[in-house]
Amino acid sequence: MRQSLIMGNWKMNGSRESAKALTEAIIAGINADNTAAIAVCAPYVYLADLQTLTADSSLAVGAQNVADQESGAYTGEVSSAMLKEFGCTYALVGHSERRSYYGDTDETVATRFCEAQKQGVIPVLCIGETLEERESGETFNVVNTQLDAVIEKAGVEALKNAVIAYEPVWAIGTGVTASDEQAQEVHKAIRERIAKKDQAIADNMQILYGGSMKPANAKGLLAMPDIDGGLIGGASLDAESFLAIYQSV
Ligand code: PEP
Questions:
Q1: Which residues contact 204 (CB under 8 A, 6 or more apart)?
Q2: Cα 72 to Cα 241: distance, rounded to the nearest angstrom
Q3: 7-65 residue pLDDT tens
Q4: Neighbours of 247 (CB within 10 A)
Q5: Is the CB–ligand 1 distance for residue 172 below 6 Å?
Q6: pLDDT in tens, 131-182
Q7: How far apart, in Å, do the first and last CA atoms of the chain sit?
Q8: Using an 8 Å Cβ cutoff, are 133 and 238 in contact?
Q9: Helices assigned H by DSSP within the chain
Q10: Is the entire prediction scored with pTM above 0.85?
């Protein structure tokens, strides 16, 4: 039985003040009888505040990226050891915005994934196809290639301590959500691909859906057998919406 995970991705939004208020409101809305885990991926500069604010709660904290190097002359990067020091449980790797605007490749994403794990930070590997790729029938090839790059570098065993987020690029921030069936089809294919290498790892793998998930569509998506939670951008900036998604599990 896989635990569901509801994870917010705040991207580059908010202020120190609003991040604090949002965190407090989310914590206040967590109920002990909800079986889902809940987390937020905040901008680096707010992680110290979140470490303090979440200390006595079950709200986990993640970063939105992690360096592909351990330490050294890598201006602008933040290492997994630093994330660990500030209480991060998770780090997103390979978010489509990193891939498309900042040049992350399958190779650098795989390296970031490995670096996160070296310090015990759980990488959340984001994979997904663009609209053009979907329309040209490339969805499964794209997703498989992105996944295989990590498996080849890290080994299938590494997926034991990782999360996958299937995020069709055409659904991110667009208001267009994959239908329950479209998302389920890809989630199932991802799980089957992992199962070819290791059935037990595939059975336990948390695979989140991301792409315009909102209170109105969360229940249907989260009810799909291979969807184990959500990675939520826009709707995670509003405590009420984010908690409504969490309550839909
Ligand atoms: C995301 O950024 O990972 C995401 C899914 O964003 P949104 O929910 O806004 O589509």
A1: 2, 160
A2: 40
A3: 999 999 999 999 999 999 999 999 999 999 999 999 999 999 999 999 999 999 999 99
A4: 15
A5: yes
A6: 999 999 999 999 999 999 999 999 999 999 999 999 999 999 999 999 999 9
A7: 14
A8: no
A9: 16-29, 47-53, 80-85, 96-101, 106-118, 131-135, 139-154, 180-197, 199-204, 215-222, 239-247
A10: yes
Q: How far, in Å, are 22, 52, 194, 231 from residue 164 at the CA level?
A: 25, 27, 11, 10
Q: Which three-class secondary structure state does DSSP give residue 122? A: strand
pLDDT of residue 1: 82
Residue 182: what pLDDT? Answer: 97
Q: Which residues, in sequence order, are CB contacts of 56 under 8 Å at separation 6+? A: none
**Contact at 8 Å (CB) between 74 and 41?**
no
Q: Which tokens in the block code for residue 24?
A: 């407090």
HSE-CB at 104 with a 13 A cutoff on CA atoms is 26
Q: Measuring from atom 1 of ligand 1, which residue has the nearest CA?
A: 233
- In this structure, which residue's CA is closest to atom 7 in ligand 1? 233
Output the pLDDT for position 96.
98
Which residue's structure tokens are 């989260």? 222
The closest residue, in CA terms, to atom 8 on ligand 1 is 233
Token pair, residue 86, equals 């500030």
169 lines ligand 1 (CB under 6 A): no
